[in-house]
Structure formats: C-alpha cells, structure tokens
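Figure S4 source data
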Amino acid sequence: MARKEIAKIIKVHLKGGAASPAPPLGPSLSAAGIQVMEFCRTFNDATRERAGETLPTEIIVYKDKTWVYNIKTSLTSDLVKKELGLEKASAEPNRVRVGELSREALERVARIKLPDLNTKDLEAAMKIVAGTCRQMGVNVEGYYWEIAKGPTRAMIDAAEKAAASEKVSEATQEEPESAGGDRE
C-alpha cells in the first residue's frame, strides 16, 4: 500500500467535546479543504468523556483531502493544576509560589505525559514536568528553586559590566600628563 502524501499538518488546542467551526479552527480547516462540521462532529464524539480538558490535537491533511487527527495528552500545566486544585498558576513564578506538588503526584503526571514526551525514561519525564511546575510557581517535593528576593544574577552582572565600562571611559577621558613633564 502506498503512503499518502501529506498536504498540511494543523496543530490546535481544542476543548474536549466542544470543537466548533468558529475561528480559529473553522477557517484553518476550510483552508485545508476539510469539511469543518464533519471534523467537529467526529472530534466531539471521540472526546466527549474528556469534556472541558484542553487537548493538543494534530490534524494531518493529505493531498487527496482525507484527514486523520491525533489527540495528545492534556497540557502538563492543566494536569498539575488539577492535581493541586488550582484555578490558575502564579503570575510571578519567580517570586510567588502557589502550591507544592508531592513526588507521587509528580510521578502520576509524568506517567500520563510520558507518551508525548521526547523520552521513555520516567525519571527524565519527572524532571520535564518539574520544570513546567517551576514555570507555574509550583514547588515540587525534592526539587528546590530559589525564589528571587532581590536583583537576579543577570541584573548584578549587567550592573558590574556597566560600572566597569564607565571606569574605562573615565580613564580615557583624563588628559595624559605631558611627556616632558617637570624636571627638577
């Protein structure tokens, strides 16, 4: 059997059981030649049990206008928020922490995400999920990050560099003493 030639790959985040022909989904599917209502009906039937979840979806459109879609696992941030019962993540993750995820909960999320990650190792998957937690302002048991309380290292380095360049410019602006000088 010959392989079909791919015309386009469309990546979207859709709510489970709630795909509609409204923008941005409708126009992008129409542009690819897909029957929008047929896709929405098929997708909604397949994801009815995951209603409300944001599902990363990859729609592969072939040259003959047939299509398939792959539904990935829920977003890591959504899984972490669900584990902690959070409404939203921290607006300032480097300063304000909004919760702490246990090692067991981290492992549960990593096991769910494992098929979609670029690793097959559970420990590596846990580190990837822990990194997402860090960006959300969530502490993870066994992983410690400093919360910025003052200037960051980059800010200090920039200030030191500016001070050094200022000294250099001051030194070059001073007039050199005359070569003959005063001889006594």
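Figure S5 source data
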Amino acid sequence: MFQTLSVKDFVPLLSMAFLSLVLVGFLVFLAANGVMCSDTDGVDMEEEELFGLFEVMGSLLDDPTWAQMHPQPCTETPWPGVECELLEETFIFHVTKIHVGPDVITPSCKTSAKISESLLKLPYLKTLSLINCFTVSLVSLSTVPLFGAHLSFLEHLALESNPSLSGEIPSTISNLKNLKILCLSQNNLSGEIPKEIGGLAYLQHLDLSHNNLTGSIPEEIGNLERLAILDISWNSLQEVVPTSTGGLQFLEKIDLSSNKLQGRLPQELGKLKRLVLLDLSYNSLTGPIPENLSGLQQLQYLIMDANPLNASFPSFIGSLIKLRVLSFSGCGLTGPILATFSNLTNLTGLFLDNNSLNGTVPPELGTLPSMNALNFSRNQLSGELLFPQDFIRRLGKRLDIRENNGLCSNQEAEDTNTSTSSSSRFLENPSCSSAMFPAASNKTVAEKSPDMKPKLYNGNKSSNARHRHDENKEFVLLPPVLMLLLLLFGS
C-alpha cells in the first residue's frame, strides 16, 4: 500500500525547498534595502512627503525639471544633496537630509530662492544645510517655516553665507528641542540673541558669527550644558562676557572676537577645563587678566589682540604648557617678557607687538623647539638679543623685533647680499658693537642719548594674529655725517 522512497527520491524535493528559501531570503533583502516599491504607484515614499520634497526643491533650485529627473530620490534616481533613511516598521523611506551648497555643483540655488512651507511635510528631516543660497532676493529668517513643533527630529540646521538672509533670530527657535548644531554664520541677521536659545538643551555647536547682532550675550546661554563650540565673533555685541559661560564644562572653543564687549574677563572662565581655544580679540576688555585662568590646562590658543588690558603678564601664563599660539598684540601690556615662556615647548607663535614691554628678551625663548613665528616689534625692549643662529635661520622673516630702539644684536645673516635672502627682521637692529651702542652691555635705554637711537625702519604693519602677513620694507638712508662716523669708528 505504501511505496518505499529511496534517498534519490528526496533530492528533487530538497532542491526545491532550498531554492524556495533562497528566493524568500532574496525578497526580504530587496524589501529591507528599499528596492521593492510600495503598493501605490510604485513609489517608495509616502506621497505627501514626496511631493513636499518636490515643492521644497522647486522653491530653492534653479532647475524646474528637478522633480522629473529625480522621481524616486531615495532609491532609483538619487541626488547628492538629499539623503533618506528606511523606517524598518513600514519599509518606507523618509527624507532625513537636504543640503544645497557649493560642493553640490548642479543645480545651484535660483536668485529668487526661498524656503517653502512644504518643508513641514518632511517631519523626519534631521539635517537642513543651505549655504550661499539666498544672495539676491531678501529672505527674513522670522518667516522661514523652521521653528515650529513639526520639525521635532531636526538635529543640524546650517544657514550660512547667505547675504540676503536678514531679520532677527526668532524666539521660537527653542521649539527645535533636538537641535545639536546651529550655524547661522555669514548672513545679514540683526537684533539681539533671544534668551530662549538657552532652551536648546542638546545643543553642542552654536555659530552666529559674521552677522549684525547687537545687545548682550544672554545669561541663558549658560543653560547649554552640552555646548562644545561657541562662536559669536564679528558682530556688534556689547556689555560683558556673561559669568554663566563658566558653567559650560564641555566647552572646547570660545570665539567672541571682533565685537564691542567691555569690562573684565570673568574669573569663571577658569573653570572650563576642556577649553582649547579662547579668542576674545578686538573688543574693549580691560585688565588685569584673572589668575583663575591658570586652570585652563588644555588651552592651546589664547588670542587677546587689541583689547586695552593695560596690565602686565600674570605669572601663570608660563604654566599653560599646551599653548601653541599666544597673542597679545596691541593690549597696552607693560613690564618684562616672562622667562617662564620658555616652558611653553609646544608654542608655535608668540605675538606681543605694539605694547609697552620693557627689559631684555629672555634668551631661553631661542630654545623653543616648535617656534615658527615671533613678533616683539614696537615695544621698549633693550639690551642684546641672544638667540641661537639656527633659531634665527629657522624663523627667517617670521622673526620681527623692529622698533625697539634699545635692542641690538651681534649676530649677522649668513647671506645678506642675495635678493632672496630670508634673513629675519631683527637684522634691521644695529650691532651692539657699533658706534650707536658703544657699551650696550652696560647701559640701559634710558642712559642712551635719544639722538643716538637708530631709525632703520619706517613702515606700518597690521597686528591681527589671524591675518598676519609680511610687508615690503622701507629703509631710511643714514645721514652722510653718521655714515662717516660709522666708517671711522666702526672698523
């Protein structure tokens, strides 16, 4: 009644079962990777979200055929500035990133570009980056449909280099509860920074630089406990640096340069144990420099140019051993250059020009192994410069000690006759053995006759620590009588 089956009879059955399993696995793989379309019109996205994307791109880009060229932007017809993610529960793609900028070559933004209300149809959007997009037609930030509760997933908002983007930062920006990066730099924004910005509890990067913002920095900025980068440079902010910034324990960079900030530096800044860069240059901050800054042991860049500090260097500066750039140009500093600067073995740039520093130049500075640029020009330094020849050769024209009338040197350039000589600017200072310094080692600047102070350089130099450049030199010819004296007594 029952037929006995041999092993050979099972082979076809096993083969069919194996092929069925492979086919099912392949179909699951296709669905997981979005290759299979949804049941409606072969679209791999929700229809409202897809058409919302088309409307947003149509309002931005200078290409009316963009939607036709990219009917399935998440799969079959992608575009570099749009990214999508697959929602595993429904196997449907959602737009998570829109980026338009110079790195996405075509199409660019049109002259009448604006942000469409249809942006609100993209509820899963995490990143919106529009760079150099609003350049002709005025767009007010307060009218941009960004700051409602509909975009609760948004983590990265970058509207940068848009000269026609104007208006104030709306207080409703606090609705973007999940925002981690906010970059509104190089626009034409005005008004005050809203205190509601302190409600962005997850914010890590805040860049409002290069705008026309006024008023003060709100104390509420101290509520941004996760903040690592704070850049509000190149605005017109006034009043003092808020003490609440001292509570931002994750801060690594503070750039408040080129504003109108006043008063003294808050001692609370010394609590920022992770701080790497502190740039407060080009403000109206006054001294003294608080001793509490000795706690900034991770600091690598300290830039204070063009502030009327009118103080001397605190001794703790020599203990900030990770410093790479120290810049106090035009700060009204007095007193000597600290010998403890020689402890800063990581220092690559030291800029102390346009101050009232006096005394001698510590020879220990010539032993700093990483030094690449040194500027002591336009001070009241005196005595003999005692830097090693290899140090001077390494710095070349990046060594600048002009207009220190009491300073001299007995070192000479190796090849001062060639037009391509890279000899340092210190060589414009006279020799200590010349007639102008008959006893330089025994006399101070005050003891020398004012008539005997050399004036071998006549020129101007900007002292911006971030935009330093060499200038052509103008040599003033020595009077014939003085030349004769040098010939008679200098040999």
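The radius of gyration is 33 Å. The first strand starts at residue 82 and ends at 87.
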